[in-house]
Model the fold of this input.
Amino acid sequence: MSFYQSHVLPRLLHLAMRQEALLAFRRRVIGAAEGRVLEVGIGSGLNLPLYGAATSSVIGLEPSAELLRMARERAAAAAVPVELLEASAEAMPLDDASIDTVVTTWTLCSIPDAPRALREMQRVLKPGGALLFVEHGRAPEPAVARWQDRLDPIWQRLAGGCHLNRRIDDLISQSGFRLDRLTHASLPGPRTHTFLYEGSARPE
Done:
């Protein structure tokens, strides 16, 4: 792994994800989490201050050692017990049916094998458990989507494997989940980067 990927990129991601415009989405998603929570791609721990009484504990899964280092301070100050794991979403070191809620916030765009990761999320969820998500992805406007396809190979190299053009709803529903709720929004900024999918799903 290059110096850029291991040290520079995590700091850039932390700064980008601190945008005030993302906070309302984070609050809604985290506010709906219950019980033992698995946050996939916990990053620098920006969601940790938002967990409340409905959450009994949080397991934060993250492949980047540098981002986990940045998350430790927030984990120590969180209102709930937090365990941080350096691991891949495609091979989670967790027991079957051991999690009440899985959370992803701007994570599915960058997992190399997202369908495999979603199957792992399904595996670790208890019966009746929920996947809560907010993600960016493919825009509905054909002209914007074509630009997403053009830019995607370059953007992946710059942004740690992040894809601009993944259809998040299809990705989730084709990986063993039933969508319970799905809404869309657009953030300020380039239209190729700012179309959001927010919702919840449960294993079929």
User: Anything to note?
Assistant: Helices lie at 3-17, 23-31, 65-77, 114-124, 142-158, 168-173. The mean pLDDT is 95.
